[in-house]
Amino acid sequence: MPQPRRAGKRKEPQDFGWVISFGCKTTGTLRRLKVDTAPSSDTSPIEVPCPCGETHRVTVSPYRRRRAADEPFDLEVKSLDELR
Ligand SMILES: [Zn+2]
After folding, report:
1. Contact yes or no for 16/67 (Cβ under 8 A)
2. What angle is formed at CA 39 by the lines to CA 34 and CA 40, rounded to 5 degrees?
3. SS3 of residue 41 by DSSP
4. How far does residue 51's CA lie from ligand 1's centre (Å)?
5. How much distance in Å is there from the Cα of 26 to the middle of ligand 1?
6. How far is the CA of 57 from the centre of ligand 1 (A)?
7. This prediction's pTM
8. CA-to-CA distance for 52 and 42, rounded, in angstroms?
């Protein structure tokens, strides 16, 4: 009986964008901002139009991570520069 072939190669990571999380003080929840392009090392603050209706000033942490395929997000931009 033929053995099922094992995946010899690791799958290429697909690009689902990046996630920067920020706290919404108004509703006390953690929101996720999806960024399509890799955030640069620029950590200057961004102005995020939050789903709560307010614009939050968010300090961009140097810590950012790739988004998982099925990870939900609250809003989306192509680049963080749109929010500066
Ligand atoms: Zn908010």
Report:
1. yes
2. 170
3. coil
4. 6
5. 5
6. 10
7. 0.79
8. 26
If you search the block for the tokens 């999380």, which residue do you land on? 21
Res 19: pLDDT: 93
Residue 16 C-alpha from the chain's centroid: 9
CA 32 to ligand 1 center in whole angstroms? 11
Q: Are 60 and 33 in contact (CB under 8 A)?
A: no
pLDDT by residue (tens digit) across 11-41? Answer: 666 799 999 999 999 999 999 999 999 887 7
Q: For residues 70 and 79, what is the distance between their CA atoms, to the nearest angstrom?
A: 20
According to the model, what pLDDT value does residue 17 have? 95
How far away, in angstroms, is 55 Cα from ligand 1 center? 7
Mean pLDDT of 47-75: 92
77 alpha carbon to ligand 1 midpoint, in Å? 16
Averaged pLDDT score across all residues of the chain: 88
